[in-house]
């Protein structure tokens, strides 16, 4: 019973590690935003240079990523009280992801070491195989109806409508088109799928090698 509980917690920790790492990588992968901005001509639409747009984006990322930055001030994008509150809520989610990433990384290290010492790496093969089906299903749902997925995401993680920005009071929304968030979802799911499939083949190879 003790071993089964440890396996459940350990496997859950590994899967959370993969999810939180994929999220952390995606939200800090600035080339994705730079490419989106250039391909959609966002800077030209907003009357800015690409460099100025990226400078504001980095200021936003610094605020969301760093707990010691208490306020958001983007020089070229004024924000309403509601908009600032939404970014504060997003900041809390970012920091929560980093906490989960750190804790699960430590826990997974010790769990993997335990499995290796007890020659039980094989217990990970099936969980990786089953879990690898989830990103595929999410990518399918994304392809079929991203609008619904986008709304559902906000309904789950936010208990208000502050995320519905008014471009006249929060022009930053014009620099963050829905397509960009779709690309972020795609990258996150692809990263998850790659890590899960990689984990499946690695654990299978290690577990059943002679």
What do these coordinates show?
The protein has 210 residues and is mainly α. It has one domain. The protein is built from nine helices and no strands. The protein has helices spanning 2-27, 30-40, 42-46, 50-65, 81-117, 125-131, 133-157, 172-175, 178-207. Helix 1 (2-27) packs antiparallel against helix 9 and helix 7 packs across helix 9. It is elongated. The two termini are 29 Å apart.
Mass-distribution shape: elongated
Helix count from the secondary structure assignment: 9
Percent strand equals under 5%
Which radius of gyration do the C-alpha atoms yield? 20 Å
List keywords for this structure.
210 residues; mainly alpha; 77% helix
Provide a brief overview of the structure.
With 210 residues, the chain is mainly α. Helices cover 77% and strands 0% of the residues.
Helix and strand layout, with pairings?
Blueprint: H1 2-27, H2 30-40, H3 42-46, H4 50-65, H5 81-117, H6 125-131, H7 133-157, H8 172-175, H9 178-207
């Amino acid at each position: 019973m003790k071993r089964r509980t440890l396996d459940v917690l350990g496997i859950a920790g590994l899967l959370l590690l993969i999810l939180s790492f994929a999220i952390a990588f995606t939200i800090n992968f600035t080339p994705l935003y730079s490419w989106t901005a250039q391909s959609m001509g966002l800077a030209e639409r907003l009357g800015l240079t690409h460099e100025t747009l990226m400078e504001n984006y980095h200021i936003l990322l610094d605020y969301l990523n760093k707990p010691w930055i208490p306020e958001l001030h983007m020089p070229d994008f004024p924000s309403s009280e509601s908009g600032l509150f939404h970014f504060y809520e997003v900041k809390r989610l970012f920091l929560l992801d980093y906490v989960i990433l750190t804790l699960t990384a430590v826990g997974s290290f010790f769990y993997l070491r335990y499995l290796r010492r007890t020659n039980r790496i094989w217990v990970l093969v099936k969980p990786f195989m089953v879990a690898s089906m989830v990103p595929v299903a999410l990518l399918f749902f994304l392809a079929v109806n991203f609008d619904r997925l986008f709304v559902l995401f906000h309904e789950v993680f936010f208990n208000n409508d502050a995320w519905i920005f008014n471009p006249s009071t929060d022009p930053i929304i014009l620099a963050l088109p829905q397509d960009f968030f779709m690309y972020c979802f795609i990258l996150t799911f692809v990263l998850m799928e790659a890590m899960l499939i990689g984990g499946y083949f690695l654990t299978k190879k290690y577990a059943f090698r002679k």
